[in-house]
Every structure is written in C-alpha cells, then in structure tokens.
Amino acid sequence: MPGHGNARSPLDPHRLERVIAPWAADPAGPALSVVDPAGATIAGLAIGERDDGHQQRIEADVVVDGDLVARVVATGTVPGVRAHRPAIESLAAALGELVAETRRREAAEQALAGHRSEHSATALGINAAELAKGRRQQRSILSLTPPEVSGYDLASHYAAAREIGGDFFELFRLPKRGRPLAVVIADVTGKGLDAALLMAFARPVMHSALDAARGPADAIERTNRVLVGERRGTLFITLLCAVLQPGTGRVRLASAGHEPPLLVPGDGGPIQAVGDAGVLIGAFASVSPPETEITLAPGDALLFYTDGVTDAVAPSGERFGDARLLAAVSEARSGSAQDLVATIRDHVQAFQESAEPADDLTLVAVARHRRGRGRHPDRH
Questions:
Q1: Are residues 228 and 247 in the same domain?
Q2: Which of 47, 171, 189, 314 is the most buried if burial means most Cβ atoms within 10 Å?
C-alpha cells in the first residue's frame, strides 16, 4: 500500500505506485513490490501480505553508481515469475536510471547556479563530466543488442543530439504464447536532462504495460493513464508500439503521435507508411490510439524511426526530409536489417557534414528472412 515506504528513499513511493500499476492490472501476472535495501516496502504490497510459502520469488537490484538503493521483488507462480524476469530486470535498471538522472539534474542545476553566482569554471567542468557519464549510462539500458528471433534480422542505431537524449527504443520478447517480439520506439518532446528523466520513467511503464495488455493500443492507453496521473512538467511523448508473431509474420501496431513505420516489400513493391499517427501521450486523459495489423511476408522489412532522421539539417540549413529517407531505404531494400539501418545512418551523417544534430536520431529495422535462408534457434 502507498505510504508505508521509507521516507529517505530516493524513489518516490507515489510515483512508483503508478509505475507498477500495469502489473497489478494483470491478475495472472506476478505481484510486484519495490523495497529499500533493508527490506522495507516502498511501493506495492508488503512481502508478508501476499507470500503464502508456495510461490516463486525473484529479485532485481536497483543500483546507482555501485550503491544498492532498492530492490524490485516479484512473487507468483513459478512459470509466470520466470517468464517475467527480463521485464523485472528492465524495470530495476530503469528505476536506477531514474534515480541517477534525478541526481545528475540536481548536480547540474547546482553547478549552473554556482556558475551564475561565482562564474566558476570548475562548476561547469563538473557539469560536463556528469553529463558524459549520464550518456554512457543511458546507452547501457537501450536495446543496442537485439534479441534473437528465428527467421528475422533485427537492427538498430541511436545517436543523441546532446549528452543526454530523449529518444528511447526497446526490442524484447513477451512472455506470452509464441514469445512475440515487442518493438517500442518513442520520442520525448524535448532534449536534455528533463527529456531523459521522462524517458527513464516511461520506459518501464511501457514495458510492463505490454506484458499485461491485450495489444499495443491497450498498452499505450495504459501508459498514457500513468503519465497523465504523474504530470509534473510540459514534456510529452510520441510513441509507437508493435507486436510481431514470428511464426506467422503478423504485426499489430499502434501509434501515439509518432511517425508511422515504413513497410519495405521484399517483392519490390512500393515502400509505404503503415498506420495512422494518433495523439501523443501524457497530454490527454484518453488517447484511443489507432491500431493497424499487417503481415510481413518473406523478404519484407519494417523500418521504425524518430523525426531526428527527417529533421536532420545540412550546413546550408536544408532539411533531410522524407524524399531522402525513401531514397536511402530504396538503396538498401534488398539487404538485411543491418544494411538498411547502416545505409540510412550513413546518408544522414553525410548530409549533416559538420552541422550540429537537430534532434536525437533512432532507427530500428525488423526484416523477415526470404524463403530458403538459414535460420537460428530462438534464444530462451
């Protein structure tokens, strides 16, 4: 129950209750708690209130700069808890990032205040070091190494416009029948520390919502409810979520104000945007995201991206735009997902030359193997 947490914890109990709310909505899933290092409950049910001695319990540490600040504890049936282990570990990592980003923002604000009052070059040096460290830690929790999915190539690229970025993406297997692949790509309406803080908060919410939801539109709606209830600033999120059934190639996707993905047919057909954009999350009580269903045939690819691609700017001030993106996709359409992502990345970098990035840039590609290609067994 809220309110029994440690008042000295760096994690806000009321915020945590909202973060873990999507788990509570799934009666078949594990019960979740967040406890401090001494075992006192910060959020969720107290451990003794729900452990009947016949359930499996797993824990994931929330670690910040080598210090244990909390633990995420899940209790439930043995198969259910084990299946949710990746999501629970991801939640713990994201909570650690949330604490770390909060500390870095406070340090940066203190350093900036010191610079304004004392014109201290040392204060600015500390700020730069903290931001560089924050970028390294932020990249460590993104899905830069995708999971293996039999019959598919997965690839991604991420580049922050500043030391700390506001884009985020994730590729992970859901603990459901057929172990579907979930793809999440999002863009906070801003850059820097505030955007990174919102990203760190929203990422585990979306992850757990997908575990509990009926589909991507339902997961987005659940995430939006949490963000609206938590509103403390003026930043919002565009978000796209897709769920792929590897055996059939069936993809269900929903968007909340995000750029529609591009379907690249393996038979040489026209490249086309899939689905509608919808309304961004965090601004309205309900977003009712439109959901679309397609099937990836052998040889087809699906490209997800943020507007940092099309909004990239050349030294002349010219925008990269949709036409150049389509040209880059066409150039690499016969290759793998890695080829597709690398070609677009290289085109954007060549276009920008020495110009500063206009925005964070994220690319994710999912390509189904052509018939006859060798397949690798799924990693369990």
A1: yes
A2: 171
Rounded Cα distance, 349 and 60, in Å: 39
> Residue 130 belongs to what domain range?
1-141
- Here the CATH number for the domain that contains residue 244 is 3.60.40.10
| DSSP states along 166-197 | -EEEEEEE-SSTT-PEEEEEEEESS-SHHHHH
Cβ atoms < 10 Å from Cβ of 233:
12
Which pLDDT tens digit goes with each residue over 308-360? 999 999 999 999 999 999 999 999 999 999 999 999 999 999 999 988 887 88
DSSP helix/strand/coil, 361 = strand
Element (H, E) at 204: helix 193-212
Q: How far, CA to CA in Å, does 222 sit from each of 3, 53, 167, 229, 265?
A: 23, 31, 20, 11, 32
| pLDDT score for 202 | 83
Question: How far is the C-alpha of 180 from the C-alpha of 172, rounded, in Å?
Answer: 8
Which residues, including other chains, have CB under 8 Å from residue 257's CB and lie 6 or more apart?
236, 238, 239, 277, 278, 279, 280, 281
Give the DSSP H or E segment for 60: strand 56-64
